[in-house]
Write a structure and sequence with these properties.
This protein is of the alpha+beta class. The chain contains six helices and twelve strands. Strands 1-2-4-5-6-3-9-12-11-10-8-7 form a twelve-stranded antiparallel beta sheet.
Amino acid sequence: MTSAMQELLSILDLERLEHNLFRGRSPQVGWQRVFGGQVISQALVAAQRTVEGARFVHSLHCYFMLPGDPAVPIVYQVDRLRDGGSFTTRRVTAIQHGHAIFSLECSFHVEEEGMEHQMPMPLDVPPPEELKTQFELIESSGLDIPDAIRKFWARERPLEIKPVNLAHYVSREKLEPVQHVWVRMTGEVPDDRHLQAAILAYLSDMTLLDTSTFPHGRSGFDPQIQMASLDHAMWFHRTHPLDDWLLYTADSPNAIGSRGFSRGLLYSRDGTLVASTAQEGLVRLRKKPTK
């Protein structure tokens, strides 16, 4: 297990301060703001710790209000909105410097039998064994890749990503708003459904919003673009041990008003639809300075 993966498991083990009150920390890796997936996953852990019995998260909806400060702990306050016969609802507010920086509402459900179907996994995507990681693509491409992209990909992370194509990172070509990446954790994930859901929430914030820049010949690393997640939603369909590659396939139906909207589906290697996501984010072209 990599040190980055060990650190992820550590930061998801929140400190209980009081009834319905928890504290989390951020890894000190030099980032200017807290990664959105970290706040989602920590807030979900806080909610899980207030839910009794065999109830598991099936959906979450959240808003990002202020950038998180990695140097300061985040306090998570849980409101127990409802404990029903089949469903449990929680609201979590993340607080720093006396202000709410993030809010999440999530729902838990007892397991039931019912009708079942799913959209099939795309068939035209090469398997991860035939692809290179982001850093390997940089090293072998021979392309003049900006330093910001190179440093970001070279940094040790708790997950590994293999993009199906590199065109949107290194060119201004206008592409279809569709993206496929393979993703997996860099260490063993404990056999705990609550923790697996939290880690799935963590990785769900990777690459999704970038898809909305493709039709405009841009990428999330473009210095002329200001990008930030505004909201995020996730639906947990089927359990998965997270011990192998997942295919994260995304599309972007719309962009308008400096906001991009993307949808995602997470499949296991055998084609099982594990989870679905949706996100809208700020995708703003920076104004050129006036002379």
